[in-house]
Amino acid sequence: MLNTLRRIVQEVNSARDLPTALDIIVQRVRGAMGTEVCSVYLLDPVSARYVLMATEGLNKDAVGAVSLANNEGLIGFVGAREEPVNLEDAAAHPKFRYFAETGEERFASFLGAPIIHHRRVMGVLVVQQKERRQFDESEESFLVTMSAQLAGVIAHAEATGSIRGLGWGGEPVQDTRFDAVPGAPGVAIGQAVVILPPADLKAVPDKTAKDIDAEIALFRSAVETVRQDMQDLSTRLSTQLRPEELALFDVYQMMLDDAALGNEVINLIRGGQWAQGALREVVSSHVSRFEVMDDPYLRERASDVKDLGRRILAYLQEAGKQELVFPEHTILVSEELSPVMLGEVPKEKLVGLVSVLGSGSSHVAILARAMGIPTVMGAIDLPYARMDGLELIVDGNHGEVYASPSPELRRHYLELVREELELVQGLEKLKEVPCVTTDGHRMPLWVNTGLFADVARSLDRGAEGVGLYRTEVPFMIQDRFPSEKEQQATYREQLEAFHPLPVTMRSLDIGGDKALTYFPIKEDNPFLGWRGIRVTLDHPEIFLLQTRAMLKASRGLNNLRIMLPMISSVYEVEEALHLIHRAHSEVCDEGMVVPMPPVGVMIEVPAAVYQARELIQMVDFLSVGTNDLTQYLLAVDRNNPRVADLYHSLHPAVLQALLKVAAACRDAGKPMSVCGEMAGDPASAVLLMAMGCDVLSMNATNLPKVKWLLRQISLSDAKALLDEVIELDNPYLVHSTLHLALRNMGLEKVLRQGR
Ligand code: PEP
Ligand code: MG
């Protein structure tokens, strides 16, 4: 059963469009289950009706013509129950509704399974049979498994159509939203430029051929080059391979003949597709044909065709390399954006970034934040390969991408872009003034940095210190561990640039989703694994070297603070302090006079919240990393768009944890800071200030907004607001109550950041 399922899903996956996918589904499921009928009904969200979209066994003329209201007939019944319905005699069921057009009166038994994707009922998959019988358990579970697998495929096919403004019935659709995770704050509207990974057939976008003859010539020349490569390879290997193995090259040569792939590709180019798109179409249809064959030898041919396709594509892409044209407002889209790709676009044209893979801590997201380019990461459902040239909206605040924007949505976002620009310009003058509330409370605002590029932007925005310098960033952009001297030079730059302001350097925080290519960590559960302080305590040589580099870099400046990430127990702090003291005495032994810097612990793990009182006794300050603390308290992966809806830093549990840390610091008379993204959210910053935070550290982009808001409010109002929301038990309520209150105070200017 598993093989049958896998094969059907594979075949459906490579279908060109939704109607083809549905046709394959009904044919294959009917065949696999041996029923007389298999049909798919899809729920049209606009009309709220189930439309018969494909059938094997019912009258095909009824496809597209027969539809039922969402509460009508057995189909509506399956959808409403969100459960399979298994009937021996369908006509006897009170919900049965007869359609003469389908000819379904001949079929007595009925088994329908809902097709559900991300909680949304998308349609119903049905099999029917003349014979009166109950479908057995294994048939029921086959259909349920099939429809669960198909839901994603259908959703993808639907999304592919909708990015071009068409629903599955060909009707216009707008504002198609793809959920992802925020990469860098801000919103942007622009035109997608899709950068393809080299020679990935699946990633080739549709494009209209500008010059058909030139595309054909390009294709022919690529085929010729591959043919020559094959010849050379075959000659080179003739002494090592047996003749039967060398025959593979003859098969390749045959497939390259016009009669096989060639003519089909050329015909598609004549129809207007560019050479790469035509090649993708032809190769994928051959591959799916081979892949479903029962004969394992023939099935193997599928990978030969794929390989051949990739080889031709590599030459086509080489020839077409110069083709990237960047429009005025370029939104760069790729399966996996890299910093190098970013560098290809003229700076003034780049307005947004979208990456299908990766997370908020990927290199490219770090760079984007430093450069202030709105970015979303992990847009896993985005049919990106088909998006070149389309207008897109990137919402880097919420981690969303919109395709086919309606005039209203476009206007809304244009307004946000304009407001944002105005706001940033209007807030520039705030640089010189301190962050003081209307009742005179002083709230220091610091920045989070990683690259040297962050320095200028931070100082430009009036940062009063660095609350988190992510030392792993310079490690990530190297291809080996930087030496002590190299680290010392990098740290010196940061310390000097901010001097005399304090710079809080965090010890190397790798693991989780932050990987070093030259120090790979492979784990099933990386966020619960070898991460942060756990790695560096296991490698004291790395920790000592880094600490020495920090201490030496601070010579004569004395503005260094050191911070320890991912602490979950007091003994980790003991060990780390021991190493810091050792590094300090080593530096002193080398004849350098540097004071012992203040040391702090990051509160990122629930255990650390409950031991905040013990921890603060051991160090000089605590700094809450709300990004991780939220992730661990709510058990929600901070980088997984599938659960992004569950990730709330305003969750009552997170607020309670913050209050606990604040109380521990207050009682110990030592400072508490917050350096997660929450500190840079203006509305949340009000609550953090009310809790008694001594420092808020954030990305430089948000600093002026936070400063503006805190300068408009009094500490006593902020405390009253905190008292109100702390009573609430639901994160949505906390969010809306907080925002409503701030709006009512006339402070919405910095709250409107999207949606
Ligand atoms: C955090 O977890 O909140 C934090 C500031 O650290 P990072 O985002 O680098 O994990
Ligand atoms: Mg963290």
What does this structure look like?
The protein has 755 residues and is α/β, with parallel strands linked by helices. Among the domains are: 2-162, Beta-Lactamase (2-Layer Sandwich), CATH 3.30.450.40; 176-195 and 322-405 and 413-424, Phosphohistidine domain (Glucose Oxidase, domain 1, 3-Layer(bba) Sandwich), CATH 3.50.30.10; 201-316, PtsI, HPr-binding domain (Enzyme I, Chain A, domain 2, Orthogonal Bundle), CATH 1.10.274.10. The strands form three sheets. Strands 7-14-13-9-10-11-12-8 form an eight-stranded mixed β-sheet. The protein has an eight-stranded parallel barrel with strand order 15-16-17-18-19-20-21-22, surrounded by eight helices. Strands 3-2-1-6-5-4 form a six-stranded antiparallel β-sheet. Helix 1 packs parallel to helix 4, helix 20 (612-618) runs parallel beside helix 22 (652-668) and helix 23 (682-691) packs across helix 25. It is globular. The two termini are 44 Å apart. The mean pLDDT is 88. The protein binds phosphoenolpyruvate and magnesium ion.
